[in-house]
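Re: export button greyed out
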Amino acid sequence: MLRRLFLRAPTSYLQASHAYYFAPQLPTRVPPPAARSLSITRFLCSSSSSQVPNSTSIEHVEDDVNLSASPPAATISIDRSGLYNSPEHSHEPSPDSELIKHLKSIIKFRGGPISVAEYMEEVLTNPKAGFYINRDVFGAEGDFITSPEVSQMFGEMIGIWAMCLWEQMGQPNKVNLVELGPGRGTLMADLLRGASKFKHFVQSLNIHMVECSPTLQKLQYSNLKCEDENNTDGMVDKKTFSLLAGAPVTWHAALEQVPSGVPTIIIAHEFYDALPVHQFQKASHGWCEKMVDLAEDSTFRFVLSPQPTPATLYLMKRCQWAATEELAKLDQIEVCPKSMELTQTIAKRISSDGGGALIIDYGLNAVISDSLQAIRKHKFVNVLDDPGSADLSTYVDFASIRRSAEEVSGDVSVHGPITQSQFLGALGINFRLEALLQNCTDEQAESLRTGYWRLVGEGEAPFWEGPEEQVPIGMGTRYLAMAIVNKRQGVPVPF
Ligand code: SAH
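Workaround output, generated via the alternate export path:
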């Protein structure tokens, strides 16, 4: 998401010296995009909240005037001697939130620090107080913005990709269309609106939304214009249908819960970047896992585990997939076991049921060093500051996704990553822009042009004549697209 469109200078939190200390550098900040409902992508951050323009919700643009517009847990003892936290990061005590109390109780109960992965998972998805759980975090009023929220063209292009794959699958009359982490449901809504004229395709769809947040599930229900089936005969399992496509919609907490046995198309946009990572730091005696501990003053701090942790197995696996020269350059490494496991679940499902998956995220086709970042209200903040009130995300390791998929099944092929710009360009976003510009207001035209630039451009928009601090930043090369498909489907468009 454009929340993650923020360019981020590499950070070096821990320095190997006699006294380890926490020394975060705030990421490079670039101005936020003006969006459909505007704010920041995870990788674009404003330098001040005053730079975030007012929410200018611009309604959905139709190309047909006759259509109405609608818009592993481990107990680890730590030698804390010699650890030092920079005083600049201490702050006045304020009442602890429920999540902070919970995190502190885990650390106290364990009698030692927790991994960065456990911290990240609790902060984002703790069922009671996780960042995503109780509120809408997107848009100008929220913390960051994503590509679907920038322009309807994003969801429409994903819809074209899904329809092309469906064609390659032989136009099955039943397909599971699964979205992992659908946010507000905007991508799926735009996909369905755009595809609604292709009756055979939409009639084949069973939509499955994999979402952990009850609040976002409700928002998705509303944005997909869902209605529950009339329960006249006392049926227990009422179905829900999206009026955008007449397709049944079901919500699940995990991909494993989506019924199998039906050809499947899976979309994961800015989902992988929210999966918890373990962080490792090279020390004189080898790789040590970075952990989250409590300081004497009861604030959170990073420490290094003096001995191997269970996650070291994943570090070893990831290192086996990398060239020696690549590893030699790194003194920090992030590994994401959940990404490896999810990819294997996806690959197995596609292998058995047919179909494919599209993964779009910011990241690299390489080992990730140190990318964990926190964004609150469109600004980068300290990862350990007031957990639960800021989004945490990381760069996605596409090379690891490829290896994970290839390792688990010989029936799938992996394509990409290619840049988002290449992906959307090849699917015809230019033509879609031209078509939409034929029939829109001046305000919509400006939103379409700036949204287009943000999705496929690189750097500052050359055509921008508005306030300098609001210049649209193109993130077309920061985001990458990768597909995993059943080999029966051949090479997916446009890889
Ligand atoms: N794809 C959307 C939202 C991205 S934010 C967009 O591009 O706008 C990440 C989304 O994944 C949110 O909807 C969040 O609630 C969901 N999510 C994060 N971790 C999850 C998990 N472990 N299981 C299910 N959903 C999760």
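Confidence is low (pLDDT under 50) at residues 1-39, 43-58, 64-88. The button fix ships in the next patch.
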